[in-house]
Amino acid sequence: MAQQNFRQRLEELGLQLPPVAAPVAAYVPAVRSGNMVYTSGQLPFVDGQLPVTGLVGAEVTEEQAYDAARTAALNAIAAIDDLVGIDNIERIVKVNGFVASTADFGGQPGVINGASELLGEIFGETGVHARAAVGVAALPLNAPVEVEIVAQISA
């Protein structure tokens, strides 16, 4: 497959990959195994801070959480880029999204659409993926969302 120019697409969208977020526990941001890259769960850090914290459906609106999922996905892409280079991505295979939400909130898929739609904007058909959108009681540092990505890369 011909190498893509996803870095240029980021620029066209007015997006910049952030520095890779430092791990908050005993793990690395991404691991390559063969032609696959698995990211650790990425929080929606912006300049080392979480712009919004709390549960979706209480302290955090669905719109804020959608934006946070976009940010977390961008952070995951940055981890892939740091490890193997964004232009070596051949396919976004899977996205797992976790939404810290109230017991009565059922909009987790809409929140994680923030990540999925961003991947579509950047990668087009290469960004079409399988996905899970899961509601959880709490996430690290009281983050409202966490996103992990599995990507197939060129050899």
Description of the structure:
It comes from Corynebacterium jeikeium (strain K411). With 155 residues, the protein is α+β, with helices and mostly antiparallel strands. It has a single domain (30-153), classed as 60s Ribosomal Protein L30, Chain: A, CATH 3.30.1330.40. The chain is built from three helices and five strands. Strands 1-2-5-3-4 form a five-stranded mixed β-sheet, covered by helices on one side. Helix 2 crosses helix 3. The longest helix has 23 residues, at 62-84. The relative contact order is 0.25.
Summarize the entry for a quick read.
This protein is α+β, with helices and mostly antiparallel strands and 155 residues long.
Classify the secondary structure makeup into a structural class.
alpha+beta
Measured as a percent range, the helix fraction is: 25-40%
Low confidence ranges: none
Termini separation (Å)? 10 Å
CATH class bucket? Alpha Beta
Morphology call: globular
